[in-house]
Amino acid sequence: MKIEEELMFGYKAKEDSLIKYGFKKEQNSFFYITPIMNGEFEAKITISKNVLSAKIIDKSFNEEYSLFNNERAYGEFIGKLREEYKNILLDIREKCFMRALFADPQAERVAKYVKEMYGDDPEFPWKRYPQFGIFRNRLNRRWYGCIMNVEDNKLAPNTKGRFVINVKADKSIFNALLLEENIFPGRHMNKESWISVSLSDYLPDEYVFSLIDMSYEQVNGSKKSKVKK
């Protein structure tokens, strides 16, 4: 696992704090350059779509220091370089990031939509699975969504792992939904009425939101809304 993934997993950036820290914004990305190892190197850090990446530049040659990300490279010098870089990231994380509800950006957008639409915050009932969050109807306490991260090949053979949201489907379109790409029988749910809808940006937000609306109506008994493809 890369240093960035190790330290920044489960965090999301606060744009105002990035600017105050010294990041420069260009379109939808943020850039920051800082000296490292007494100026012998510099770290060029980029944050785009809440993903942090960086290049370590050897100032003597003005080119990327390729050994930095080589897991087989070790020794006192490169160990110090990595440690100093980690400390830079930890400082940025402390001052410019906050804990995300979910590690997946689209799952975060789903949580925001549900809060704005229905006023419900996710509940995290399982200590063993801290990224599994459920949404309940506040009146009848019935579930209408469950976000979870799923490992490779668990949704279907030869399928990459991803975040999904389990929703209850309208029976009239249940079978048709299962024929669609990136929709699967409900993981850990009743597979005759629940489906697992891929998050992780496999499907557009608007479509995912409409499937959540469908599920809410199934457990609430309200008027049907149109599923938006």
In terms of topology, how is this protein built?
Blueprint: H1 3-8, E1 11-13, H2 15-21, E2 24-26, E3 29-36, E4 41-48, E5 51-58, E6 63-64, H3 76-96, E7 97-99, H4 105-118, E8 133-136, E9 143-150, E10 162-168, H5 174-178, E11 183-185, E12 194-198, H6 205-220
Antiparallel strand pairs: 1-7, 2-3, 3-4, 4-5, 5-6, 8-9, 9-10, 10-12, 11-12
Helix pairs in contact: 4-6
Please supply descriptive tags for the structure shown above:
about 230 residues, alpha+beta, Aspartate Aminotransferase, domain 1, 2 domains, 5-stranded antiparallel beta sheet, 6 helices, about 30% helix, about 25% strand
Provide a brief overview of the structure.
This protein has 229 residues and is α+β, with helices and mostly antiparallel strands. Helices cover 30% and strands 27% of the residues.
Give structural notes:
- There is one protein chain.
- By secondary structure, the chain is of the alpha+beta class.
- It folds into 2 domains: about 5-100, no CATH class; about 105-220, Alpha-Beta Complex (Aspartate Aminotransferase, domain 1), CATH 3.90.1150.
- Helix content is about 30%, strand content about 25%.
- It contains 6 helices and 12 strands.
- A 5-stranded antiparallel beta sheet has the order 2-3-4-5-6. A 5-stranded antiparallel beta sheet has the order 8-9-10-12-11. A two-stranded antiparallel sheet has the order 1-7.
- The longest helix has 21 residues, at about 75-95.
- The mean pLDDT is about 90.
